[in-house]
Specification:
Elements lengths: L5 H4 L6 E3 L7 E4 L17 H8 L8 E4 L7 E8 L6 E9 L1 H14 L5 H12 L4 E12 L2 E10 L4 E11 L3 E9 L1 E4 L5 E4 L1 E9 L6 E11 L3 E2 L14 E18 L8 E4 L2 E4 L11 E16 L3 E3 L14 E3 L3 E15 L10 E9 L2 H9 L9 H7 L2 E11 L2 E10 L10 E13 L5 E8 L4 E8 L3
Parallel strand pairs: 2-10
Antiparallel strand pairs: 1-2, 3-4, 3-27, 4-5, 5-6, 6-7, 7-8, 8-9, 9-12, 10-11, 11-14, 12-13, 13-15, 15-18, 16-17, 18-21, 19-20, 21-22, 22-23, 23-24, 24-25, 25-26, 26-27
Length: 469
């Protein structure tokens, strides 16, 4: 089933989006942006923990990724150190951009008139030059069965400096509490542009989903410093990233109903072979039952801002630190309603080696019901809505197709369709697409290795994802 909780989570600052731009493997979604696709959401497992499992799949444990930001585009990551104890573990990961290293050596070779000792020394220095390399260190300490602390830092040899993070988790019987600080924090908008916020601090309390389907969360968030555009040239700094303190609360109610479902039986666990019946479970326990299901979620959120809140038309970038003083002001108080409706159809039990899984998920998202109503009212008046309101009010349809290729390997296609005219283009259009190849790991019950590529962002990486269908 499509992830309905994205509807509420996207209103806060802790929704993780998969990206190879960081060694952690994710960047934050920006509140107020359109809800991201399910394929874009990062894995629940920490990157270091993912690498411990998937490193055995690749030669020498080198896990590839692709990103246009990286010099040479391709990069390889490897888990260098991973000691673990009863209540503490440490992970050290290294990354190399081979094309940058090879290009530097090639330039030295082509520029050499004679093959003498200085040339060999210059080439040798390229291997110890820190610019093609990055390194990340993550440590987690369990203070008690319900509390833990996580510290992480990553350093890039190309002069980007250190990225640091500190997190505290505490589990209550019906709530989760998270305190987090990052300096700087990397965010990504719906266009695939990255923004660095110098300092980001959050305190969040979220409830577990009750049997009735009710869920709520509240928290405070503070941004400090002017956001910097990582790969945008001209544009508008998102208001949610401007300096200031925000207190926000949200609630949601979700419900799901099976139109039909074929329950798993004891006979399904027996697979007939030439040597007789043997026990065998589905490749993924979350996809073992054919079914058709409809589900939905509705909710609302409200927030109050204190301080800051002006967004410039010309963004601040690494090359130009000037900020245009003409800016749009952020409203000190805001409230809105959101909702999603989903329909899921699955054929097959994902047990056989061929033709045993076809699955389609369709999810309609409305990120802002108030702006949608305001926009509808303009039909009867002469008023208009600005581009930001038009962005939030436009409904979007997320389609996910999964088709078994052979055994545990599944091809997945995620697309997001904008059901509105935008930027002078009439009618609905495809806003984003992600291609994925997944390999389910039966021994993890519901875990899979996912290799995905986003043509819009021109990025791709390999992840381990758990309990995602």
């Amino acid at each position: 089933m499509a992830n309905l909780r994205t509807a509420m989570d996207s209103a806060f600052w802790d929704l993780n989006i998969s990206t190879p731009q960081t060694l952690d493997g994710w960047a934050r979604s920006i509140p107020g942006e359109p809800m991201p696709m399910d394929a874009a959401r990062a894995s629940r497992a920490l990157r270091m923990q993912q690498m411990e499992t998937i490193k055995t799949i690749f030669p020498l444990g080198l896990i590839p990724s692709y990103s246009p930001k990286l010099n040479g585009s391709f990069a390889f990551q490897s888990l260098l150190l991973n000691p673990a104890f009863s209540n503490w573990w440490l992970g050290l990961v290294g990354q190399i951009r081979p094309k940058k290293l090879i290009s530097a050596i090639k330039a030295d070779v082509q520029g050499a008139k004679e093959w003498d000792l200085p040339v060999f020394k210059k080439i040798a220095k390229r291997f110890v030059d820190k610019s093609p390399y990055s390194i990340g260190l993550t440590s987690q300490l369990a203070l008690s069965p319900s509390s833990s602390v996580l510290l992480s830092t990553e350093m890039h040899g190309n002069g980007e400096g250190c990225h640091n993070r500190a997190m505290f988790f505490h589990q209550l019987p019906d709530h989760d509490i998270t305190l987090e600080a990052a300096w700087p924090e990397l965010f990504i908008d719906h266009k695939g542009n990255y923004w660095d916020v110098p300092e980001s601090i959050s305190l969040d309390c979220s409830s577990l989903v009750s049997e009735s389907g009710l869920r709520y969360r509240f928290g405070i968030h503070k941004n400090r410093g002017q956001p910097q555009a990582e790969n945008a040239v001209n544009g508008e700094v998102p208001l949610a990233l401007m300096p200031g303190l925000c207190a926000k609360g949200a609630f949601s109610y979700e419900k799901s109903k099976d139109l039909w479902r074929i329950k798993e039986t004891a006979q399904d666990l027996l697979i007939n072979t030439s040597q007789g019946p043997v026990w065998g479970s589905a490749f993924d326990s979350g996809m073992k039952e054919p079914h058709a299901t409809v589900s939905g979620i509705i909710g609302g959120h409200c927030g109050a801002w204190f301080g800051g809140g002006k967004s410039s038309v010309v963004v601040e970038s690494s090359e130009d630190n000037n900020i245009n003083p003409s800016a749009k002001c952020r409203a000190p108080f805001g409230a809105d309603l959101f909702g999603s409706a989903c329909c899921t159809f699955q054929h097959g039990k994902f047990r056989k080696r061929y033709n045993d899984l076809t699955r389609i998920d369709a999810r309609l998202d409305i990120s802002s019901a108030f702006t949608l109503a305001k926009r509808a009212a303009t039909i009867f008046t002469n008023s208009s809505v600005n581009s930001a309101e038009k962005l939030r009010s436009s409904p979007r349809l997320n389609l996910t197709l999964q088709q078994q290729m052979v055994g545990p390997y599944v091809f997945r296609l995620d697309s997001r369709i904008l059901l509105d005219s935008s930027e002078g283009r009439p009618g609905p259009r495809i806003e984003d697409v992600t291609y994925s190849l997944t390999c389910s790991l039966r021994y993890l019950m519901s875990g899979k290795v996912v290799a995905w590529y986003s043509p819009k962002r021109k990025e791709g990486m390999v992840e381990l994802r758990l309990f995602e269908f």
